[in-house]
Amino acid sequence: MKFGCHVSIKEGYTGAAIRAIKLGANAFQFFPKNPRSLSVKAFNRTEAVHCHQKMAENNLVSVAHSPYPTNLTASDDKQDLVVRSLLNDLEIAEACGAIGVVVHFGKQVDKDPIHSYKRMIHTLNTVLKKWEGNGKLLLENNAGKPGTMGTTIEELVQVRKLCDYPEKIGFCFDTCHAFASGLWIGENWEEVLTIGERLGYFDHLYVIHLNNSKYPANSGKDRHANIFHHGHIREADFDKMINSTILKDIPFILETPSDNGVTHEEELAQLNKKWK
């Protein structure tokens, strides 16, 4: 099993890889630049290559996460900013040897959901027409109330199919988001598996955000909790999911809080003791 966590790049990209190793991880996630800005970053390519080498030497895998303001359904006046930022994210991720860049599924922008889907697909096409690297854009399921945009496997798969460059798109499954939206409520993992396999979702799943939820299923609230503490997803339900054969090569990345007295190092040790 590949267990990891989100790490800071304050010590550089190579520093992030070294930090992950020290925590006992064999996978990690990082923001390629300031997580609160869509500005394009002029990064140190030599340092990024060193990160790639450090990962290869230590059998690490990584994934980047787009900044918080990234919005695939952005208005016309902001779409160019989002496109340039995502291309920059992909370029940095590729240089660092990452699988790709996680980006949240778009939000509904008006009463007509079709308009939002069209806007999202247009943004993806605009980015991917210009992107010639190997790294993928990884669409992450949303945490909204059941029925809101981006909360079903069917939507994720269909958006990928409707894009002009589906081969450049993959998926990221967030367990807290799935729980909050009612996609996965714990005991229905077999149903999720059946739907995902039928639609080919798991063929393009590259990373899992492994988070518990501070709120009950169907709450629509995106509030992460630690895997073994203070969460509503039961350990037995995680057990059934993590032990699924179809996920055996997928990295599980913690985005859990560290303000509850549980560090990522401790949590990774618990994960490896129970499931490795």
Automatic annotation (TrEMBL):
Task: Give the Enzyme Commission number.
Answer: 3.1.21.2
Q: Which Gene3D superfamilies match?
A: Divalent-metal-dependent TIM barrel enzymes
> Cross-referenced InterPro entries, in alphabetical order?
AP_endonuc_2, AP_endonuc_F2_Zn_BS, Xyl_isomerase-like_sf, Xyl_isomerase-like_TIM-brl
Q: Does the keyword Magnesium apply?
A: no
Q: Which domain of life is it from?
A: Bacteria
- The reply to whether Signal figures as a keyword in the UniProt entry is no
Q: Which family does it belong to?
A: Belongs to the AP endonuclease 2 family.
This protein's cofactor list reads: Zn(2+)
- EC category: hydrolase
**Gene Ontology MF terms:** deoxyribonuclease IV (phage-T4-induced) activity
Q: Which residues form the Xylose isomerase-like TIM barrel domain?
A: 20-270
Tell me the PROSITE patterns matching this sequence: AP_NUCLEASE_F2_2, AP_NUCLEASE_F2_4
Native source organism of the sequence: Aquibacillus albus
Enumerate the Pfam families for this protein.
AP_endonuc_2
UniProt keyword list: DNA damage, DNA repair, Hydrolase, Metal-binding, Nuclease, Zinc
The identity of this protein, by name, is: Deoxyribonuclease-4
